[in-house]
């Protein structure tokens, strides 16, 4: 069985590739390197540079590498930027997914694990998000991910596509010192950038109705996330039933202040965060239950907060502290 990992040269996708290899499954990577890095892909893993918008390239990749399933991680993932670039977001995430599904149908590839997002829920007013929590995406990014899930469901009805979608919030850490988060928008890289530049990191608001006044979110170790992507792929290979979607959630969450304290503790760089104004639309708490994924996808939080921070910091330092 050979799995195509779209976006497999990115931070999450590269960890999925390694999890596949650790499970003795074959992988091939397709990535346009718009945000991924060629060096994140192991040298012995076949690499195809190109876009999921290129249906002919997808068809050749399926044929040349004997692809039997897809783990679809590629996409434009910046929710905030998507508000300014909605057409680009829809092209990459909706048109791209439709093109991928068309190529799969044409080549008889009938199984897919979709990297969705907890952004499909928007800002739900519940203590714990479950798979049945109403969907109310509040950015083109979140909307595009929900449409992607609809596309999979429709193909399931029309063509017998076997599929599942994995929804999650904040992905951190590193499972391999050669891979680190290079996003210009994520919390860990932003804090690391500030510390390496001699600046003081900031917290956006400390007057929320939470135990320490700062936002509470799920923070998930990327290697744990990758394990569940592969568990889903294995179940699809075995013809075992899967739900249409799963939340990969911590069940309790971590506050931004706790993150800052852990970063100071692990790096040994003492700092007191600057308290900046709240960001508009930032809810106090969004945390998801991972109970259903624990039942079916070997999902669990295998890393402590300090381990998440330490692995991310070590990978960043291994890269020379570069941005």
From TrEMBL:
<comment type="similarity">
    <text>Belongs to the NAD(P)-dependent epimerase/dehydratase family.</text>
</comment>
<dbReference type="InterPro" id="IPR005886">
    <property type="entry name" value="UDP_G4E"/>
</dbReference>
<dbReference type="GO" id="GO:0003978">
    <property type="term" value="F:UDP-glucose 4-epimerase activity"/>
</dbReference>
<protein>
    <recommendedName>
        <fullName>UDP-glucose 4-epimerase</fullName>
        <ecNumber>5.1.3.2</ecNumber>
    </recommendedName>
</protein>
<dbReference type="InterPro" id="IPR036291">
    <property type="entry name" value="NAD(P)-bd_dom_sf"/>
</dbReference>
<keyword id="KW-0413">Isomerase</keyword>
<keyword id="KW-0520">NAD</keyword>
<feature type="domain" description="NAD-dependent epimerase/dehydratase">
    <location>
        <begin position="3"/>
        <end position="249"/>
    </location>
</feature>
<dbReference type="Pfam" id="PF01370">
    <property type="entry name" value="Epimerase"/>
</dbReference>
<dbReference type="InterPro" id="IPR001509">
    <property type="entry name" value="Epimerase_deHydtase"/>
</dbReference>
<keyword id="KW-0119">Carbohydrate metabolism</keyword>
<comment type="pathway">
    <text>Carbohydrate metabolism; galactose metabolism.</text>
</comment>
